[in-house]
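Customer escalation, tier 2.

The customer says the design service returned an amino acid string that "doesn't look like it belongs to this structure." They asked us to rerun it and document both sides in this ticket. The original structure tokens are below, unchanged.
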């Protein structure tokens, strides 16, 4: 069944004229194709893998290239280490098209293209901050970009009028356009994406060889910290290599923070040691408080943990009854209790609704943890 957002997107006329050529039909490329096809845009697909290309075409993301194709816009969705090469090739092959790419690093491709003498007056990099844990064309979704930030990296060689096609692409796919320079983008993603990947990976390494008795105690905290450690190593070698200096600077600061924490733990009973620990933890609280909440609002939520029997229909019943109570669900996270046929549903709601929802759910027979 298509999502409500996809149905809405289909009913709105596209801002793009088309055709749009998508090079690389992994998760992002296929999702771009699916989203544009719902808008009625003629999408041309290309990929180095004939198998992936056939899957994406069969999936409905677009058609194969034909002689005489004259795309309005080209979206390059290939790994970071070949992004500049493929963008340069597309600029040369289609001299009337505007070309963008969706690589997660922006300064390196732009610099490489300039050094190669490419016509960057028709190129502007972009980066949708959207994805899934699975990759490949079968993971593609027409609604992948809805409500997600999509950075456009302008530069002096391209005019606003020419770059307008990229804005149209983003708006057609439901993304939220964010303008940055290449340097600003790479520094930002180093902080919010690349360094968290490194920290998650290093924490996950600590789990190797750990006894099952310890791992069976793992709860939501450990799973949250290590979830992204399951990402593709080959891709992340490319990303980290292309954005090495911003990542390195943040990791150096992180190492200093870690050293302070370790020093405070050397002798927790020493004068001032507990105060140092408290200050470090409080700084972490302050950092989390700066993260925008739902819809970018700076609002804090309260969590209620409800025990849900691991049987069909129970979670649906819980969500339905929350709606009947008239409380808006701000977020939801599920966790299973090891060795027990029960799940823990952590429900985030506004503070003023927490007491009423807890009372109503308890009255309906739900067990509230804590």
């Amino acid at each position: 069944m298509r999502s409500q957002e996809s149905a809405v997107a289909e009913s709105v006329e596209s801002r793009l004229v088309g055709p749009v050529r998508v090079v690389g039909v992994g998760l992002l490329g296929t999702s771009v194709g699916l989203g544009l096809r719902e808008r009625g845009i003629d999408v041309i697909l290309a990929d180095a893998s004939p198998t992936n290309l056939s899957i994406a075409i069969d999936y409905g993301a677009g058609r194969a290239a034909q002689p005489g194709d004259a795309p309005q816009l080209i979206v390059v969705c290939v790994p970071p280490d070949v992004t500049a090469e493929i963008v340069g090739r597309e600029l040369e092959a289609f001299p009337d098209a505007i070309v963008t790419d969706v690589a997660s690093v922006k300064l390196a491709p732009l610099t490489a293209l300039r050094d190669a003498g490419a016509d960057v007056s028709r190129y502007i990099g972009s980066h949708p901050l959207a994805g899934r844990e699975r990759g490949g064309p079968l993971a593609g979704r027409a609604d992948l970009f809805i409500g997600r930030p999509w950075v456009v990296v302008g530069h002096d060689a391209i005019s606003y009028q020419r770059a307008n096609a990229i804005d149209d692409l983003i708006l057609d796919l439901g993304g939220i356009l964010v303008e940055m320079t290449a340097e600003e983008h790479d520094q930002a993603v180093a902080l919010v994406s690349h360094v968290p990947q490194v920290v998650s990976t290093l924490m996950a390494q600590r789990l190797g060889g750990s006894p099952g008795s310890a791992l069976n105690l793992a709860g939501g905290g450990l799973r949250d910290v290590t979830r992204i450690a399951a990402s593709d190593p080959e891709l992340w070698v490319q990303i980290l290599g292309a954005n090495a200096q911003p990542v390195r600077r943040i990791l150096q600061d992180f190492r200093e923070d870690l050293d302070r924490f370790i020093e405070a733990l050397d002798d927790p009973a020493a004068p001032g040691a507990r105060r140092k620990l408290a200050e470090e933890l409080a700084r972490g609280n302050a950092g989390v408080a700066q993260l925008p909440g739902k819809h970018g609002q700076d609002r804090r939520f309260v969590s209620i943990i409800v025990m849900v029997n691991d049987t069909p229909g129970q979670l649906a019943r819980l969500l339905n009854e929350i709606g009947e109570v008239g409380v808006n669900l701000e977020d939801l996270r599920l966790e299973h209790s090891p060795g027990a046929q029960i799940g823990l549903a952590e429900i985030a709601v506004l503070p003023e609704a927490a007491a009423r929802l807890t009372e109503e759910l308890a009255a309906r027979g739900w067990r509230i943890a804590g």
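Tier 2 assessment: The sequence is consistent with the input. The chain has three domains: 4-180, 187-289, 296-368. Residues 14 and 39 are 6 Å apart (CA to CA). Sent an explanation to the customer and offered a walkthrough call.
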